Amino acid sequence: MAWIYLLIASVFEVQWAITMKYTDGFSRLWPSVACIVGMVLSVIFLAMAVKTLPIGTAYAVWTGIGAALTALLGMVLFHEPRDAARLVCLLLIVVGVVGLKLVSPAD
């Protein structure tokens, strides 16, 4: 169950990172509310995951998934650069996250 909590935490991390772009420096109410709710839920689910998962593994996976998906969504939603070097680096993050999952204790 801890890995599911970690996946949910990662999804909320992506949600708050993307909605932060729409807050306009936290000057827009509803995007700001959505961003803060996502932050809180992300940390709550991360805390639930680290009850049984090693903190180093959980944190690395949480930030890795969040960083990779946020970068991909930035390319799609905000037309950020999509050059080969960025894509290779994102692939390396995904490989690292999968590797940590494979060598970590089961929930």
Automatic annotation (TrEMBL):
GO MF term list: transmembrane transporter activity
A Pfam family matched in the record: Multi_Drug_Res
Record has Transcription as a keyword: no
Membrane-topology descriptor: Multi-pass membrane protein
GO terms for biological process, alphabetical: xenobiotic detoxification by transmembrane export across the plasma membrane
Localization: Cell membrane
Residue ranges crossing the lipid bilayer per the database entry: 29-50, 57-78, 84-103
Keywords carried by this UniProt record: Cell membrane, Membrane, Transmembrane, Transmembrane helix, Transport
Family matches, as InterPro entries: EmrE-like, Small_drug/metabolite_transptr, Small_multidrug_res
GO cellular component terms listed in the entry, alphabetical order: plasma membrane
Highest taxon of the lineage: Bacteria
Family the entry assigns: Belongs to the drug/metabolite transporter (DMT) superfamily. Small multidrug resistance (SMR) (TC 2.A.7.1) family. Gdx/SugE subfamily.
Name assigned to this protein: Guanidinium exporter
UniProt source species: Piscinibacter koreensis
